[in-house]
Structures are given as C-alpha cells and as structure tokens.
Write a structure and sequence with these properties.
Helix 4 (156-169) packs across helix 6 and helix 7 (233-244) runs parallel beside helix 9. The protein is 29% helix and 22% strand. The strands form 4 sheets. Strands 1, 2, 3, 4, 5, 15, 16 and 17 form an 8-stranded mixed sheet that branches. Helix 5 links the parallel strand 10 (188-189) and strand 11. The protein is α/β, with parallel strands linked by helices.
C-alpha cells in the first residue's frame, strides 16, 4: 500500500516544513510530490506534526518469562501508541539472553508478535549474575548492545573484560550503574522525604561511584559505553567531564527524572522506580544536561509489573513504572511548552540521537525506511492508565493534563497504530 500523508508539518533536516509525505513500498519516496499514481491512500493531517518515529533504548518487554507483566505484543503495541517505531529490549528475562539458545527464544517471539522494531540486548554476564561473561561473541550479530540492566556489574575485573570483549566485537556496553555495597536496604532517594517519613534511602553515590569507575575502564579500553537512566547530578558532571576528555560515552535519562522529584512522592507504588526520584538540584542538573548535550537521549525505562506488585506502597512495591504511552506528551507539555527546550531538541533526544548511537534504522528523509509518527499537539487530555495497551498501569503521571496525542504510527511503511481505528 502507498500513502500520501497530506498537509502536515514535516520534520526535515532539523526543522519543520509544511508539506506532504509520499510513502511507497515502505520507503519515503518523496516530500510534497507534485503527483502520484497507483494504489495510494491519501490521509489528511492538517495542522499535525509528522516526525521520525521515536526510539527507546531502554524498555522491559518481560517476555519470555514474565508474560503476566507484559508481552512483546502488548509492549510493542504500547510503543506504537506512544509514537515509537523502535525499542531496545532489556535482558532481565527468563531465560536470560546470555547465549544463542536463549536469545533465539526471544528473537522468535519478536518475529512473531512485535508491532514495532525490537532490538534485543544481550546480557553482559551469564544469568546477569556478574560472575562470568555471557557468550557475547555468538550473540553480537543479533543484539543492539550488551547490558545487565537491573543489576550493576560489581566486579571491576568482569566489567573490564566485558568492555574489552565488546570493543573487539564493535558493540556498546550499556550499564546499569549501582554499587550494591552502598544500597543498605534503601528503596527511595536518601533525602528529605525519606527522613521525614521513615523510609530507607538510596544514596546518590550508589549510582555515581560506579559511573566513575566505568568511565575509567571505558577510557582504558576505548569501548563505546552508555550509561542507563542517569538520575544524579554527580553522574551528569562525571559524564560531562568524560566527554570533554574524549571518552566514547553516551547516556540517557528518563521522563520522570526530568519532571518529578522526591517532593512529588506519595506512598504509592507508582512513584517507586530504580534509580529513585531524587532532589530538585538533581532534576535541575539533568535539565542542564539535556540542554548542553551531556545527556544524549531520553529513554522511558518502561518497566511494567502486575497491579498487585505495585499495590504495596513505597516500601514493598516492585521497582519500575511504565512510560511508553505517555513519555512524549509529558515531555512536550513540561519542557517544550514551558520553553525549556525546543520541539526540535525533543525529537533529537527521543529519536535522532538514540538511532545514531544504537544504529537503528528509519527516518524522514527521502530514501529512508518509513518509520514515522504523527502527533496532534493541539489535543489536550488527562493521562488515563486504564486506556493503556501495555499490561502495566503504574505511572507517576496518572491524571496529568498533557498536550500532544499520537494519532498514527508507521513502521516500514505499514500503519501499526491509528487513533480511533479498530485495526490495532
């Protein structure tokens, strides 16, 4: 099927131009074509913004192993509804993708059920146990990168070996940075809210200390290195300095760290994630980091759990919140409409930069695979988790008034989400 996406504001070469997009055989064939022929559907998008599809390099799809939390089908449908055309799937699964046999199980489900592009991570260590490297060499052609996300690699020697091996394979190490010796049973930020309300805190040093260690190892090895879900101001400064020194390093933060702080906490599982919501000074440092390029991209860390697992308050609920279906509108509303960053910068953070770093296809230039999303930025609504396509419902943004609704998502020239369509 060929399509003309008509009368939109089209994102081209980092700016918006009025025009039409002609999609033919899965490819962006032309922008504002003078004519077209054949079996072509014309879809009017007056006043809407046509952008390259969003890419999220930090998503938990939970399958295989934890189907009750999420599946590749429901997670990727949620991604499509949020304007994402590609996601990188984290390896905390059962079985863990630490060898080709286990990875093939995940790949077969992706091929069968995924609504958007899914690039799986391979685990850094066997069973994510931190003691022995996974079969990185055999998995390398099939994975986006290597990560033990959910667990920091505690051993300096193991991390050094992983970086050396990944370097030889031309792959990125994407690290969940957490020093277990500093956790001390904490489950929210070690700040004012924790002290006032009798909760055990997670200190910022548990994150930034391991960031610092890994930067030195990345400097030694020359391996491309990526820091997951940065939350602490000290981490931002370490990464800023490492970039200035020429280390091959990128990093991500998540929408909740840019919008919320410990001051927004309630004794509700939808505010519990790891790393935790930190202080206003941390949030300010993250904002400065996205503005000056220290922070390269925004990823949701979409981490669905069952309703029961998230119903036990801050102390006992499982760590993790969902974000694929509300990330763009939250950030557009909070950052763009408040003149903190431009819409073009938001697209850089949520689409262009992650695609460059993780070699993800799809764009909005002539000849690109037609991976795109259409947003109506005029639409205002409340975030209602009951409407989510994800099995996860736990988001700290529940009830928030936002602007910007994804009304269509296309992957490889095929419509995978359309608002108010029965073909979902």
């Amino acid at each position: 099927m060929n399509y003309i996406l008509k009368n939109g504001y089209v994102f081209r070469k980092n700016r918006f131009v009025s025009g039409d997009v002609f999609v033919s055989d899965g490819i962006i064939a032309d922008i504002s074509p003078r004519g077209f022929s054949g079996d072509t559907a014309v879809i009017p998008f007056d006043g809407c913004f046509i952008i390259p599809g969003l890419a999220d390099v930090h998503v938990h799809l939970r399958e295989p192993g934890f189907f009750y939390k999420e599946s590749i089908k429901t997670g990727t449908l949620a991604a499509a509804r949020g304007g994402y055309t590609a996601v990188c799937a984290m390896p905390n699964l059962s079985p863990v993708p630490d060898c080709m046999e286990n990875l093939k199980e995940e790949l077969s489900i992706i091929e069968r059920d995924a609504a958007v592009r899914v690039l799986p991570y391979g685990a850094i260590t066997r069973a994510q146990a931190g003691a022995e490297l996974s079969d990185m060499e055999k998995m390398a052609p099939y994975v986006a990168a290597f990560s033990d996300d959910g667990r920091g690699v505690q051993s300096d020697d193991i991390m050094l070996a992983a970086l050396n091996k990944a370097k030889s394979l031309g792959k990125i190490i994407a690290a969940h940075c957490e020093d277990n010796s500093l956790l001390k049973g904490g489950y929210i930020h070690d700040g004012e809210y924790a002290r006032k309300n009798g909760h055990r805190g997670i200190c910022s040093e548990s994150e930034w200390k391991q960031v610092g260690r890994d930067i030195e190892l990345a400097r030694q090895t020359g391996c491309p290195y990526h820091v997951c879900h940065v939350s602490a101001k000290e981490s931002v400064e370490l990464i800023r300095k490492a970039k200035a020194d020429g280390v091959d390093i990128t990093c991500e933060t998540a929408p909740h760290y840019l919008v919320l702080t410990e001051n927004d906490l309630k004794d509700d599982g939808r505010f519990k994630m790891n790393p935790p919501l930190r202080s206003e000074s941390d949030r300010h440092a993250l904002i400065e980091g996205i503005k000056d390029g220290t922070i390269d991209m925004i990823a949701t860390d979409h981490a669905p759990h069952s309703a029961e697992e998230k119903s036990r308050g801050l102390k006992l609920s499982s760590m993790g919140v969902v974000g694929l279906e509300c990330a763009f509108p939250v950030l557009y509303t909070e950052l763009v409409k408040n003149n903190i960053i431009t819409l073009e910068k938001l697209i850089e953070l949520m689409s262009l930069s992650p695609k460059r770093r993780f070699n993800i296809p799809g764009g909005l230039e002539i000849g690109d695979r037609a991976d795109l999303a259409v947003f109506d930025l005029r639409q205002q609504y409340k975030i209602n988790p009951d409407e989510f396509l994800s099995k996860g419902r736990s988001t700290p943004f529940e009830g928030k008034e936002v602007f910007g609704k994804c009304i269509m998502t296309m992957v490889n020239g095929r419509i995978v989400w359309q608002e108010n369509s029965t073909e979902k």
